Amino acid sequence: xxxxxxxxxxxxxxxxxxxxxAWAGFEVVDAADGRAELKLPxxxxxxxxxGFLHAAMIGGxxxxxCGFAAFTLSGRVLASHISVNCLAxxxxxxxxxxxxxxxxxxxxxxxxxxLFALRGDEEHLVATGDVILVPLASGADAAxxxxxxxxxxxxxxxx
Length: 159
Description:
This protein has four helices and six strands; from the N terminus they run ααββαββββα. By secondary structure, it is α+β, with helices and mostly antiparallel strands. The chain has one domain (2-158): Thiol Ester Dehydrase, Chain A (Roll), CATH 3.10.129.10. It has a six-stranded antiparallel sheet. The radius of gyration is 16 Å and the shape is globular. It starts with a helix and ends with a helix.
């Protein structure tokens, strides 16, 4: 159990390095053994014109949860394909994305996620998604070619 907890902590630390994840407010609830769970409290600024969670946030949660599930098995990954199915209007007090790796290969990792709207004590399935991810090499391929990182962008915006 300690190992699973430390994996969750490692994924949470990785999430903290991504400016988008910090802005969105993603919370890593769980991550270990090819699975991950994210939570996002509802905020009006994440909604679309009719007051539901914006599809871009739905896709972002699915992409991120699948990426974190893949990370637990393959290390750093990059999405090469994402498919999202919005099944119902995403309205709730918070949202939870649960992802699992379907198959992890050397060159591709296939993951699936479900997104639930939390309303009181009930969960309502509002979207599903599939992501194909590519494991990154630990060397030069693991960093952006321009050297841009979340820290360098934050430093630049502080100037």
